[in-house]
Amino acid sequence: MEKFSFLDDYSEGCHPRILAALAATNLSQQTAYGEDEYSNQARALIQAQLGDQPADIFFVSGGTLANLIIIASLLRPHEAVISAATGHIASRETGAIEATGHKIITVDKPDGKLTPDDILKTLAENAHVPHMAKPRLVYISDATETGRIYSKAELEALSAICREHDLIFFLDGARLGAALTSNANDVTLADIARLTDVFWIGGTKAGALIGEAIVINRPEFAQDFKFHIKQRGALLAKGRLLGIQFQALFEDDLFFASGRRANTLAAKLSNAIVVAGHSLASETETNQVFPIFPNALVEKLDADFRFYIWEPHGTDHSVLRLCTSWATPDAEVDRFIAAL
User: Fold this and answer.
1) What is the distance between the alpha carbons of residues 331 and 335, in angstroms, rounded to a whole number?
2) Is the peptide bond before 130 cis (omega within 30 degrees of 0)?
3) pLDDT value at position 1?
4) pLDDT confidence band for 2 (50 / 70 / 90)
5) By CB count within 10 A, which of 103, 158, 262, 279 is most buried?
6) Could you tell me the pTM of the whole model?
7) In DSSP terms, which residues pair with 169 in a beta bridge?
8) How far apart are CA 167 and CA 159, in angstroms?
9) Mutual orientation of helices 152-164 and 116-125 as an angle, nearest 10°?
10) 3-class DSSP state for residue 308?
11) pLDDT per residue as tens digits for the range 126-145
């Protein structure tokens, strides 16, 4: 039997409903560069989720691109980013932020979650003016790279400390769909819009073919943002491709349904791993599972499944990452549990 991949949550193309929407609108002539009717409708649907918080919404094709354009557009040359060391911009983006001339000041956080104390400590350690890069933007992701989520109280505390110290609060939402549908979650999109200055909604990991929606909650940050998108090569002539997908994700419950399904399957995997007597390197709150397995077991599982060996654990164990998605078949989860 062919190996089934738990490597990531974007191994498949896109949700059938999105594929159908793309096909159904294929021959409709539309204005270019994101000014088409589908993109405008998608913006209105997302805005409806944000409550009373007015926002400017832009679509780009990928997450690294979103992070790079946002951070490069908001910071002056001497300004820096505060991030958990496990943050995607610090550990998985090939120095993209540094390539724009901005230092990333990292904080060692095993769960990937920053706290107000982390921010205050970083400010104190980087206060030798003008000889050190100036911390200006706080970067978090929800869910984090270890699958953990922020509570509303945690986001409120971070938002308050950022506003007190004139810091930009930015949330990477690559897996925001999984975070918002976690059983442990008490946050809404309206909360995030109220508490952050900028965030983005991940479509790629929620069933879209490609695409992320950048939401800017401060008008001064949105001014001229399209110039930055164009200058970075991210302004698609056929912007409709992104708009149609976000319209399909948000015109009903598809965005949230995709997250719920991925989380449910991850919880099933996680529970079975614990019942089998194994430990987890990180609590399972979303669609990423981090079991600690003996290396001999890892070799046997590798015969039938694909997964990331995240890091070594001692001399004879490894931490794996198993990722579920909207498209993961129940039968493959059951097959992994049976093999385990």
Assistant:
1) 6
2) yes
3) 63
4) confident
5) 262
6) 0.97
7) 138
8) 9
9) 30
10) strand
11) 999 999 999 999 999 999 99
